[in-house]
Amino acid sequence: MKEIANRGKGKTLLISAGIEIMLIICIMAANLNPTPILYFIFYNLLYGLVFSLLIPLYCLYKENGAPASGRVLAEAGFKKLGIRQWGVLAAFVVFSVGGQLIPKMAVGEQIQWHLLPMGIVPLIMTTFFEEFLFRGFVQSRIDRQFGWVPAILVSGAMFSLYHLGYPGFCTWEDILLLFAVGGGFAAAYKLSGNNLIVSFFANLPNAFVTYMLKYEQFPVMSVSSTIAAAVTLVLIGLIFLLYHDFVRYGAHGIRS
């Protein structure tokens, strides 16, 4: 029994490490020659849909056999919000957003508010992939197998290291800062009772503010990136819809 458990732990670490490496490679490839079509293929499709969504969904499905789709999604943190979740969310948003904006505004530094509209849709997409993978998939599995402290550390480390693929986030200072930020999102996920909605909405406002304050470190946000992100979000919805139907009918034999 212990040997089986150890094998499961090793498999979790191996899958997590493999996905992390592929994320970095895909993001580097997307930014190496960032034409719209290549960026869409390497970033939205490969980094996002394949390695951040489809492979985790497949692993969750295999682990749970053929349960109702709601159970698998609950395993990934798709749960209702209660008073506790709203409290955790509010605290983390105020801390992360206020901690960045208030000092800047207090000294009269100009905030690039005009940049935000173009970044909204791409950042919604990227934030979803980050939270589904690093919190809903990796952190939940490691929490069950190793405990909550290693889960938060691994989730935060994976969140920071995957940014090595972005040319603007390659310094040690950035990686250490992102580790602290990722650890914060992981803590929000754990404190909320492993609720993906909480960690997503704790991450998203922080992403908006970080983009406005450090836009030169981000990939260029344009009309094409907004359209590509919108298409990807539609594909995410279709994947979940097809997944639900597959689990409901295909796994138990299609009903006549």
UniProtKB/TrEMBL annotation:
TM regions (residue ranges): 12-31, 37-61, 81-102, 114-134, 146-165, 171-189, 219-243
One Pfam family per UniProt: Rce1-like
Protein's UniProt keywords contain Glycoprotein: no
Keyword match Hydrolase: yes
Domain CAAX prenyl protease 2/Lysostaphin resistance protein A-like: 113-199
GO molecular-function terms, A-Z: endopeptidase activity; metallopeptidase activity
Keyword set, alphabetical order: Hydrolase, Membrane, Metalloprotease, Protease, Transmembrane, Transmembrane helix
GO biological process: CAAX-box protein maturation; proteolysis
PANTHER family, per database record: CAAX AMINO TERMINAL PROTEASE, CAAX AMINO TERMINAL PROTEASE FAMILY PROTEIN
Protein name per UniProt: CPBP family intramembrane metalloprotease
Organism: Parablautia intestinalis
Lineage: Bacteria, Bacillati, Bacillota, Clostridia, Lachnospirales
